[in-house]
Design a protein that fits this description.
two-stranded antiparallel ribbon, 5 helices, about 5% strand
């Protein structure tokens, strides 16, 4: 008859082997998860980059033009000697200077934050409320964005677009700040 201690040692060894197998499996799953998260982050950043690249100089993306039913994006209008109206419905500047449907119009004196799309208005609203320059992680946190690289990079991409269009300035430290003269107005 086996001893109680011997039986316990046998079961202890079996449990230790099971723990080691599960740890190995957990390490494999965690490595696969890290790899999948990196792939996901790369796709998020790639998609945002493509959207920015496809955006024309007036802020309307070629993807939006294609989605509107036009078989091809309209070529940029060339100056015409006759003032005849164009048959295709192209966006015309509003009295505020913004082009309807544009995501981030180029900033000029008199434009207010409310001409921006909601996601860009939120960024501007946070910076207006903060009354100071913010690092991207701080901005993302204030927006309630998950603190994962892909989400923070999405905010950074949008903030950089606002910099390129003249709404924000990027300090040498990497902080984003409102450009002098930018007003909230109806955001």
């Amino acid at each position: 008859m086996p001893s109680v201690i011997g039986l316990l040692e046998e079961r202890e060894r079996a449990a230790a082997e099971r723990v080691e197998v599960l740890r190995t499996e957990a390490d494999r799953v965690l490595a696969a998860l890290r790899e999948a998260e990196l792939d996901w982050e790369r796709f998020v950043v790639s998609r945002e980059t493509v959207v920015e690249v496809l955006a024309g100089p007036d802020g309307v993306s070629e993807a939006d033009t294609l989605a509107s039913g036009d078989p091809e994006p309209s070529p940029s209008p060339s100056p015409s000697p006759s003032p005849s109206p164009s048959p295709s419905p192209s966006p015309s500047p509003s009295p505020s200077g913004a082009v309807p449907g544009s995501v981030v119009p180029e900033w000029c004196e008199g434009l207010v934050v409310s001409v921006l799309s909601p996601e860009y208005q939120r960024i501007m609203t946070v910076l207006i409320a903060a009354q100071r320059a913010l690092f991207c992680k701080e901005l993302a946190s204030e927006l309630g964005v998950e603190p994962v690289a892909a989400k923070v990079e999405g905010v950074r991409s949008k903030a950089n677009r606002l910099v390129r269009q003249g709404w924000l300035v990027k300090e040498p430290s990497g902080r984003f700040a409102l450009r002098a003269g930018v007003r909230g107005g109806g955001s």
